[in-house]
Amino acid sequence: MSPVSHPLDDVFLLGGGSPVRRLGYGTAQLTGPGYWGPRGERREAVAVLRAAVEQGVTLVDTADNYGPGLAEELVAEALHPYPDELVVATKGGVVRTSDRAWHVDGRPERLRAMCEASLRRLRTERIGLYQLHRLDPEVPMADQLGALDELRQEGKIRHIGLDTLTADQLEQALSLTGIASVQNRFNLLDRSSDAVLRVCEAHGLAFLPWFPLADGALTGEAGAALTGAADRHGATRGQIALAWLLHRSPVLCPTPGTGSPVHLAENMGAREVRLSAEDMSRLEGLVPARRTRPA
């Protein structure tokens, strides 16, 4: 699929009504290996979260199973009371039992309990974007989304999002309730969710690509092909990879994560990179996509 031609817009209207800057911040890297326990000093994580907002981030993406619970607590410690323009997104539906063990649980009563726990940890009465971390194959989709819809009607969440699903599943979900966002893996190396992206574009849904830097691969050896573009634009490989996402589609809203203030500032610098149509075409040719799991 060729790059989408559009003016580079810095703001996306989440759910049609919540403006967020398209380059956000993800909190997974504030936790340890396997997203288990702390990664470093608590004060350092708090400082990075505050720096992200100071540098213009208005979408912070976290999850109840990062830590587990720790990332949400850090968000609250660093940013509560939340600025009016800040949307805090979190996820539920995955239960972690160790750094290598987890299972999906989409039973309505469990989703409600998870959401209530996230509300307490985030110290808020309403979550801006609550995302189903994984669809539970053992529970009807209508029951899972019905539970989230009830929470929305009660005012406990504002927008509903979904994580890791196919285009057909997304279309089915849209027939059941209003969806504001999708999170699937998507980056220069993995474009297997092109079909999901097209559905998001058609319905005006935010697409929050996880692993926007291919879990670091695009800043390492696999990103060597980005060096030419980086040199031309006076940027880093990581900035080029993020800029490619921002230019690729107006609904893509990457939320790269880091525990480093230096890397945070580098990531935010991707907003200043302007790629031409030639740049976009050349990048897609230089970095062949690994279409491992079509969606």
Break the fold down into its secondary structure elements and pairings.
Layout: E1 11-14, E2 18-21, E3 25-26, H1 42-54, E4 59-61, H2 70-79, E5 87-92, E6 94-98, E7 101-104, H3 108-122, E8 127-132, H4 141-153, E9 157-163, H5 167-176, E10 181-183, H6 194-203, E11 206-207, H7 227-233, H8 237-248, H9 261-268, H10 277-286
Parallel strand pairs: 3-4, 4-5, 5-8, 8-9, 9-10, 10-11
Antiparallel strand pairs: 1-2, 6-7
Helix pairs in contact: 1-2, 1-9, 3-4, 5-6
Explain the overall architecture:
Mean pLDDT is 93; it is low at 1-6. This protein has a domain at 18-215: NADP-dependent oxidoreductase domain (TIM Barrel, Alpha-Beta Barrel), CATH 3.20.20. The chain contains 10 helices and 11 strands. 37% of the residues lie in helices and 16% in strands. The strands form 3 sheets. A 7-stranded parallel β-sheet has the order 3-4-5-8-9-10-11, covered by helices on one side. Strands 1-2 form a two-stranded antiparallel sheet. It has helices at residues 42-54, 70-79, 108-122, 141-153, 167-176, 194-203, 227-233, 237-248, 261-268, 277-286; strands spanning 11-14, 18-21, 25-26, 59-61, 87-92, 94-98, 101-104, 127-132, 157-163, 181-183, 206-207. With 295 residues, it is α/β, with parallel strands linked by helices. Helix 1 packs across helix 2 (70-79) and helix 5 runs parallel beside helix 6 (194-203).
